[in-house]
Specification:
Length: about 400
């Protein structure tokens, strides 16, 4: 390795991206291309950085598999920053294996952590938790430890394990302090602030109350019936009943819980469940069928009685029936929650994260764009979507595939 490459690498390690570019900007050998790619990534020029890293990986020969593996890991991190989630995880896993075999444990751990963060973005939380458990923390640098603890904290928050999240945040703060990286300290502080922000609204008896995550966890641990409009399901004691794929039953349960202990008019139930303003006898018959299905579903915890004008929810034991509403209204709350991280997302990445088709996501984005809630940059395949940051509350309960409360 020549002196200019050494000097550029030292400049990058110190965060001096421009200083590194001054030394290798006119060179096209694989080592210089890799350093130029990393420098461009530090400057936020992700598309150019990715192109340079791909050229560098192709330029290294068969006997330079260690250097090629490092380029693959760097490109994977850039792809993650660009929210391009289409790449195969097998390539990254192979690169991590090569790095481990060549005793480059720091970059191997970096590759494993990139895989964990990708799984978190895709909402594959159980796989992310398993991958995080397999990491060997003994050889981690303070900065990698902080990133790993942030991932552990997010996993804990999405399953409402608040004490575990607080402990992970504390370990992440200590690690970031040891690493002395201001950007990492700021990231930990921003993530930690999630605990102090409203995460949902408690709706009962016509009164709304903002709740933090710890208060949401306490509500879930209480007796009574909670209609969770963030995760689309019912929570009764230790039982979780998902209703994300049964929207009519969920709409009926929410309407009955919002009115509890009063009853709800049949016309109102038909309007909220079937979205029909002028019902006929067929809709009333269908309402009775759907109420019967909901009655059977919640029979261990409550029953639904017919009243003079509609139906009313009756709980078997003490406690209240409440609705846990998301901090933002609308059918596309999960989409807005993903876009609120301030990073441009492609339609394909959003579709992967939401588990929906690209056409479905495109229709939802067009609807949000008409309402001025999102905007796009670029054209055709380079088009990316952005949303203004949602200040004042956290949307972590709206992220896709959030784990049910434990």
């Amino acid at each position: 390795m020549d002196s200019l490459i050494n000097a550029a690498a030292r400049a990058l390690a110190g965060g001096d991206a421009l200083g590194a570019l001054k030394r290798v900007a006119l060179r096209d050998d694989p080592s210089a291309l890799a350093l130029r790619g990393i420098a461009m990534a530090q400057l936020g020029e992700h598309p150019r950085a990715r192109e340079l890293l791909q050229r560098a990986a192709r330029g290294f020969g068969a006997h330079e598999e260690l250097a090629r593996a490092r380029c693959i890991v760097a490109e994977a991190e850039v792809a993650l920053a660009m929210r391009d989630l289409r790449g195969s995880p097998r390539t990254l896993a192979t690169a991590a294996g090569t790095l481990e075999a060549r005793a480059d444990l720091a970059n191997a751990l970096q590759a494993r952590l990139i895989a964990v963060r990708r799984l978190l973005l895709l909402g594959r939380l159980e796989e992310a938790a398993a991958a995080l458990t397999r990491l060997d923390a003994r050889d981690m640098s303070p900065s990698l430890t902080a990133v790993a603890e942030l991932a552990a904290a997010e996993l804990a928050l999405r399953s409402l394990r608040i004490s575990a999240a607080q402990a992970a945040f504390e370990r992440a703060h200590q690690a970031a302090t040891r690493a002395c990286v201001p950007a990492l300290l700021a990231e930990v502080a921003e993530a930690r602030a999630t605990l102090d922000r409203p995460a949902a609204r408690r709706c009962a008896g016509g009164v709304e109350q903002a709740l933090r995550l710890d208060e949401v966890a306490a509500l879930m641990a209480s007796s009574g019936l909670v209609v969770d409009a963030c995760r689309r399901g019912l929570h009764a004691g230790a039982t979780w009943l998902p209703l994300a794929r049964r929207p009519v039953l969920f709409a009926l349960a929410r309407a009955l819980a919002e009115a509890w202990p009063a009853d709800v008019d049949r016309q109102a139930l038909i309007a909220c469940a079937f979205r029909i303003r002028r019902p006929d006898e067929t809709h009333r018959a269908r309402l009775r069928v759907e109420i019967g299905r909901l009655r059977a579903l919640i029979s261990p915890y409550a029953h639904i009685e017919a009243s003079a004008r509609g139906f009313v929810l009756k709980l078997h034991e003490g406690g209240d029936a409440v609705v846990l509403a998301p901090p933002v209204d609308g059918e596309q709350a999960a989409l807005v929650a993903l876009l609120s991280d301030g990073v441009p997302w492609s339609t394909s990445a959003l579709a992967l994260a939401l588990g929906a088709s690209q056409r479905t996501v495109q229709r939802a984005l067009a609807e949000l764009e008409t309402g001025g809630r999102v905007r796009s940059v670029g054209r055709t395949r380079a088009r990316r979507w952005l949303s203004p940051p949602l200040a004042g509350f956290t949307t972590i309960l709206l992220l896709p595939a959030a784990l049910p409360p434990e």
